[in-house]
Amino acid sequence: MKNLKREAAVFAGALLCCFLWGSAFPGIKIGYRLWDISGDDTWRIMRFAGVRFFIAGLLVMLFASAARKKILLPHKSELPKIMLLSAFQTIGQYVFFYLGLAHTGGINSAVIDSLTAFFAILIAALFMRTEKLTARKMLGCLLGFSGVVIINITSQGFSLNPLGDGLIALSALCYGVSSNLIKRYSQKHDTVIFSGCQFIFGGAVMTLIGQCGLMLSGKGSAVNADDLPKAVLMLIYLALVSSVAYTLWGLLLKHSDVSKISVFGFMTPVTGVILSALLLDEAGQLGIKHILALLLIAAGITVVNITPAQKNE
After folding, report:
1. What is the largest CA-CA distance in the chain?
2. Is the dihedral of CA 56, 60, 61, 66 positive or negative?
3. Residue 90 vs residues 87, 197, 266, 298, 302: alpha-carbon distances, Å
4. Is 97 exposed, middle or buried, given 0-12, 13-18 or 19+ CB atoms closer than 10 A?
5. Structure pTM?
6. Of 295, 248, 280, 296, nearest to 109 (Cα)?
7. Which residue among 26, 49, 74, 135 is least crowded, i.e. fewest CB within 10 A of its CB?
8. Binned average pLDDT, 10 residues per bin, the chain of 313 residues
C-alpha cells in the first residue's frame, strides 16, 4: 500500500510538471506577441528568456528559504557544478528552445521536444553508466522517436526546419544531459538550492548577452502600454512554470531512476499540442499524423515504464 501511494504521488507530480511545461509552448508564443518580439529578434528573445529564468531562480530560493526559515546559499565548492548544470539546463536548453520556437509552430515544437526523455534515457545508459540500456527501453525510445519523425512528414516527404525543429531537438539534447547531472548531483547536494541557483546564473548570463546584443545592434524595445500588465503577468507565469516544475522534477529524479521519471516527459507534448491548439488557434493544423505521433509516444511511455514482475533490471 505504501509503495502504491508513493507511485501515485510520483505519477501526479510528474504529470503536474508535464502540464506546466506543456503550457509553456503557447505561453511563450503569447509572451512574444505581448512583448512585441518577432522571430528574428534574437537578442530580445534571449533577454526575454533570461529575465524569465532569473525571476524563476529568485522565486525558488525565496520560497525555499521561507519554508525552511533560513537564508539558503550554496557553498563555494558547489558553484562549478551549479554553473555546469546551468550551462545545459538553462543556457543551452533554452537558448535553443526559444530561438527554435520562434521559427516553428507550437504543436510541432511540443512533439519534437518529446525527444528530451529519449536523450535522458540514452545518456544515462550509454554515457553516465547509471542504468542498463535494455531491449525494452530501446523499443520505447524507437516508438517515441518514430512519433517525432511522423510529425515532420509532409506531402513532399520528410521536412525538418533547422532553425525551428532542429534547434528544438538540440534543446532536448541539452535537457537529456541536465537530467543526468541533476540525478548525479542530487545524491550529495541540495536539489532545491541547485535548481534555484542554476536558474539565477543562467538567467543572468542570458539577460546580459541579450541586453548587450540589443545595445550593439541599436534596436529599441517598446511595449504597448495596454499590453504591459498582461505581458508582465505572462512573464511571471512562465517564471513560476520553471521554478515549480524543475524543482519538483529534480526531487522526483533524486528518488527514482532517470528512465522511470524522464519517460513521463512524453506527456509534455500531449499537453503542449492540446494547449497550443486551444490558445494559439492552431487547431486547424491538427491531423491524423499528430494523433498517430502522440499514440506512438504514449506507447513508448508504456514500454519503458512497465517493468516485468519476474525481472529485476
Report:
1. 65
2. positive
3. 6, 11, 20, 27, 29
4. buried
5. 0.77
6. 280
7. 135
8. 70 87 88 84 88 94 90 93 94 85 71 75 80 81 76 60 82 89 88 92 94 81 77 93 86 77 73 79 72 80 65 45
